Amino acid sequence: MSWHILGAGSLGSLWAVRLARSGLPVQLILRDQSRLEAYHRAGGLTLVEQGRPQLHPIAAQTADHPAPIQRLLLACKAYDAEAAVARLAPRLTADAELILLQNGLGSQAAVAAQVPQARCILASSTEGAFREDDFRVVFAGHGHTWLGDPLDLSPPSWLDDLERSGIVHDWSLDILSRLWRKLALNCAINPLTVLHDCRNGGLSEHPAEITTLCAELGELLETCGQPAAAADLHDEVLRVIQATAANYSSMHQDVRQGRRTEIAYLLGHACAAAQRHGLALPHLRALHTRLVKHLNAHGLPSQ
Ligand code: NAP
């Protein structure tokens, strides 16, 4: 059974290379014919590990390929996920399983609505990778991936494939709690690093802003039925700020490099959830308004 992987970007390449080199069949699905030709010219995916690049000539195709898809790893950005799956929907088998690697929340539900027959497994990863060039990815930080399905707690049979490929993972019985917690950490840290134009550590100069945001985020998580994700949020935010003081957040890097952010699935999703519950969170809303203005001023979408 082939692993189909949509998106030969940072995480998609990281998964594709590890699965392929453990002997599993992998098919990359690229955006269109011109990307496929560029991929063939590159001769495959290059993964750089500990400074050492290695080329992996993994098979690739476009969405128009006729072969059915039983197992699909969706490794695009949250804002591309729904449209990407809509194109592949006719190829999915009746028992298809999708693994959704997207950060934040909102894209997973949009994908699931496109393919009601498929099982959607949600993932949350602390692995780090970035694109050095087209089809060339650097494995920057080893981490852990949690996988889970809120609708069916039984683990899928292919977790063995991940084990065998060295993809460190756990099957989570409460993946939504993990995704909400990560979203809250992101909302408390990333937008402020953009607005103050600082590294994560620079936020230690804004303790009052952090405290207020964490209080509102905690309230939101409780209201959304995620009390475990709310527990000790403020303490963890402070710990993350300290532990990653020298780093620029992913959102800061996106904005600096003129790339679209995933704001709609992070702070945007939090504000929309608050509104749906009739919950007034004035500081979170004001943060969202400031961030939207900032992105628009830099010519970036705020959706
Ligand atoms: P990325 O490097 O930008 O890669 C995304 C890939 O998806 C690109 O190669 C893009 O193709 C491809 N794509 C988009 N739409 C497509 C379509 N319709 N058909 C085929 N390919 C399509 O993104 P990433 O960093 O891997 O992030 C993926 C998700 O993982 C995000 O939600 C991110 O927040 C999350 N995440 C990333 C990391 C990390 O370290 N990178 C860590 C944790 C979580 P083109 O090359 O043609 O543009």
Distinct bound molecules: NADP nicotinamide-adenine-dinucleotide phosphate
CATH architecture of the largest domain: 3-Layer(aba) Sandwich
Percent range of helical residues = 40-55%
Q: What is the number of E strands?
A: 12
Give the SSE string: EHEHEEEEHEHEEEEHEHHHHHHH
Our count of helices gives: 12
In order across it, which strands form the biggest sheet?
Answer: 5-2-1-6-7-8-11-12
Q: Which CATH class of the largest domain applies here?
A: Alpha Beta
List keywords for this structure.
single chain, 303 residues, alpha/beta, Rossmann fold, N-(1-d-carboxylethyl)-l-norvaline Dehydrogenase, domain 2, 2 domains, eight-stranded mixed sheet, 21% strand, binds NADP nicotinamide-adenine-dinucleotide phosphate
Detailed description of the structure:
It is a single chain. The chain has an 8-stranded mixed sheet with strand order 5-2-1-6-7-8-11-12, with helices on both faces. The protein has a 4-stranded mixed sheet with strand order 4-3-10-9, with helices on one face. It has 2 domains: 171 residues, Rossmann fold (3-Layer(aba) Sandwich); 121 residues, N-(1-d-carboxylethyl)-l-norvaline Dehydrogenase, domain 2 (Orthogonal Bundle), CATH 1.10.1040.10. It has 303 residues and is α/β, with parallel strands linked by helices. A hairpin with a 2-residue loop joins strand 3 and strand 4. It is globular and about 55 Å long. The two termini are 36 Å apart. Helix 6 packs across helix 12. The structure holds NADP nicotinamide-adenine-dinucleotide phosphate. The site of NADP nicotinamide-adenine-dinucleotide phosphate (NAP) has 26 residues, from helix 1, strand 2, helix 3 and strand 9.
